[in-house]
Specification:
This protein is an alpha/beta fold. The chain is 31% helix and 17% strand. The strands form three sheets. The chain has a seven-stranded mixed sheet, with helices on both faces. Strands 2-3-4-11 form a four-stranded antiparallel sheet, with helices on one face. A two-stranded antiparallel sheet has the order 1-5. Helix 4 packs across helix 5 and helix 8 runs parallel beside helix 10. It is globular and about 60 Å long. The two termini are 24 Å apart.
């Protein structure tokens, strides 16, 4: 245990800024969810840091070992009065993320698969999901005339490897946040074709003629500037290239019907798209968005509320007006569930089990199941 006098805090590491406009449509009419006076108190988490433009420094092991996860939960959610986007005002500064983003992402999101060798069940799930994805791509014309592919957050590389062998790709490149899946992918695809992502706004590698297909795994929810991210992707496409965005949750459903965020929503989630706001946003970026069925190969609590869109370049449109009242109601539903969870967890441990069943019966709130420790008997990534 590190003495408090020398322990780093999250605010020493994470440098942020506060938005005063919607990151999706740029309107400044922002609504505050009316969930009570204690919306920003400790029961709902606290903002990560005061705005600062200082350079960040590397995250020490002592910081990670003593990290209070609640200090990395958002409390400053807003709803855009025009497009109804749900988003957090707190954003990481893009020029100060390389030293802290991956270590904290891995810790806060409990990426316990980032060990070597990879857990066998994780690898099997990735292989099955890749097979499901490829079948959807093939059945809906996504693979037509595709010779070059970039997969952002490629995990174990199974989908890229499958496309390479089945579609006879000339270029198959992957990018991944975590070292163990990237190491596995490099074994399938070749070391030179897989690179690590160290920022929420990575530099997309160029190739001559552009990519026929860019596959993007759960980037838009996490992006500090989703419009800028898409503007950087589009020039990397070939003349008739496509982008597939997948593994993006419909938060209108997730926040209403899932306990996935019962502990809070951490700072790596910047905007919460829905089935209405995501395609509208993509069209404002000059992309013609067509929804595809999404595989549920990974059996997790929000899998059946997940979206996938295939896009091609088109004329940009203005962001249409959304239902802000509905978004406010969704945020309030989530906040009330989160408050009940916080009160449950504040009870002494012997009382939690007694009251948990009562809360489940009255409010549909379940205690999250204990996650298995997949790191046992495995060496960390070297």
């Amino acid at each position: 245990m590190v003495p408090n006098a020398v322990r780093e805090t999250v605010s020493d590491i994470v440098r942020t800024e506060l938005l005063d406009r919607c990151p999706v449509c740029d309107h400044d009419g922002l609504l505050v969810p009316s969930v009570g006076d204690d919306f920003s108190d400790n029961s709902l988490g606290s903002s990560v840091a005061a705005p600062s433009r200082d350079e960040a420094h590397p995250v020490s092991k002592a910081t990670l070992d003593g990290l209070d996860v609640t200090s990395l939960m958002h409390s400053d959610w807003r709803v855009c009065g025009h497009c109804a986007m749900m988003f957090s005002r707190t954003r990481p500064l893009l020029d100060a993320t390389s030293t802290w983003y991956n270590p904290l992402f891995r810790t806060v999101e409990n990426r316990d698969f980032d060990v070597w060798p990879l857990p066998e069940m994780f690898v099997r799930n990735q292989a099955q999901t890749a097979q499901d994805m490829f079948e959807i791509f093939r059945n809906h014309g996504v693979m037509q005339d595709v010779g070059s592919v970039l997969h952002m957050r490629c995990n174990t590389g199974h989908l890229l490897d499958l496309m390479s062998s089945e579609a006879d790709l000339t270029v198959a490149r992957g990018m991944e946040y975590f070292e163990s899946p990237a190491r596995y992918a490099a074994g399938l695809l070749g070391q030179e074709n897989v690179s690590l992502i160290t920022s929420p706004a990575p530099q997309v590698p160029e190739i001559e003629g552009g990519y026929d297909l860019i596959v993007v795994n759960h980037f838009l929810t996490h992006s500090p500037d989703p419009r800028l991210f898409i503007e950087q992707l589009k020039p990397r496409l070939s003349e008739h290239g496509r982008i597939v965005f997948y593994n993006e949750q419909d938060h209108d459903q997730v926040l209403r019907h899932s306990d996935h965020y019962s502990k809070g929503i951490n700072v790596f989630h910047n905007q919460l798209f829905t089935r209405a706001t995501l395609p509208s946003f993509l069209r404002t970026c000059g992309l013609d968005a067509r929804q595809l069925p999404h595989p549920n190969g990974l059996k997790w609590s929000v899998g059946h509320h997940t979206m996938m869109f295939v896009c091609q370049a088109d004329e940009a449109i203005a962001m249409p007006r959304g239902n802000a009242d509905q978004s406010l109601a969704v945020m309030n539903t989530w906040a009330n569930m989160h408050r009940r969870y916080a009160r449950l967890m504040a009870l002494p441990k012997p009382l939690r089990r007694t009251f948990a069943k009562s809360l489940e019966l009255r409010f549909g709130l379940k205690q999250p199941p204990a996650r298995p420790d997949t790191s046992k008997n495995r060496a960390p990534v070297e």
